[in-house]
Amino acid sequence: MVLRKPEFGGRLIRDLDSIDREILKMLVENGRATLSEMAEEVGLSASGVRRRIKVLEEKEVVQGYTAVVNPEKMGYGVVAFLSIDVRSGEAGRVAGALTRCKGVCEVHKTTGDHCLIAKMRAENRVQISEFVEDRVSTYQGVKDVNITMAIETYKEELLTT
């Protein structure tokens, strides 16, 4: 998925009105809140809230709905950040390959010392090491990969409004 400049009817997201922002906040905090619950909170009818959500979806401010899964409860308690150096012109191809790999949560093209940074989760350090040695290091265009293991996570969540 390629993220684009966030727009809402030609306006940047920061120009949403307070009701739209409150609806977004409620959707992020509890995607299972009912239209009636949201309507009561923002002072609109349920159909008014439904219309606003539909517009937010059409303008791709809201891009989907999903469950938030605790990775540690699913056995993916180890977090690593892979700093990947690639040859000129290869970042997009390598990033595309990484996005299809199990355990890779995020892939970013960056400035600075490395071309790409990928966040991945695994059951243990050995899985991460093997993934880097057996897969990432063998991708055409990859020059070097550095692994940074997270010792403790203090905050990890999706964007909130």
TrEMBL record:
Pfam family, one: HTH_24
InterPro entries xrefs: ArsR-like_HTH (IPR011991), AsnC-type_HTH_dom (IPR000485), Dimeric_a/b-barrel (IPR011008), Tscrpt_reg_AsnC-like (IPR019888), Tscrpt_reg_AsnC/Lrp_C (IPR019887), WH-like_DNA-bd_sf (IPR036388), WH_DNA-bd_sf (IPR036390)
UniProt entry tagged with the keyword Transport: no
One GO cellular component term: cytosol
Keyword Transcription regulation: yes
UniProt keyword annotations, A-Z: DNA-binding, Transcription, Transcription regulation
SUPFAM superfamilies associated with the record: Dimeric alpha+beta barrel (SSF54909), Winged helix' DNA-binding domain (SSF46785)
Domain HTH asnC-type: 16-77
GO biological process, one term: response to amino acid
GO molecular function: sequence-specific DNA binding
Protein's name in the database: HTH asnC-type domain-containing protein
